[in-house]
Amino acid sequence: MAHTKIVALAVALSVLACAWASHAQNVPTLSAGAYTNDQADRGFMKYMQTCSRCHGADLQGLEAPPLSGGAFMQRWQGKYVGELFEHTLDFMPADQPKTLDAKTVADLMAYVLQFNGYPAGDADLPSDMAALGGLRMEALPRRTGGGAQVVDH
Hints:
Layout: H1 2-26, H2 37-50, H3 52-55, H4 69-76, H5 81-91, H6 102-115, H7 129-132
């Protein structure tokens, strides 16, 4: 009887472990490509119009914090992309907060991710918090010359 319970418990734990592993493999990651190049291109255009005067054309920050490199990753690494999305949606631009729509913020974030060296994928970065909830800011995949990878537009 005790042996049967131990076997049943072991089987149940194995099933749970497999289910968890399967779910973990389905969670998108930035290194797998979470935006498209077209979306990043839209984000670049909006960034230059709206964000560059404070964050700089090179995303290194002027009046506002940098959006690339070590200082950016120190602030955001390990947090969910949804947190950065929500912060941008609620507080940016600093002189006119809450004037950017969710699609524009997703495009801006795609450009920031691209500039920081994250690869593009096959689908746009979503523009809703629920879809961004499981997407975590990972360590930068690579940097060129100690800084962010520069993407020509």
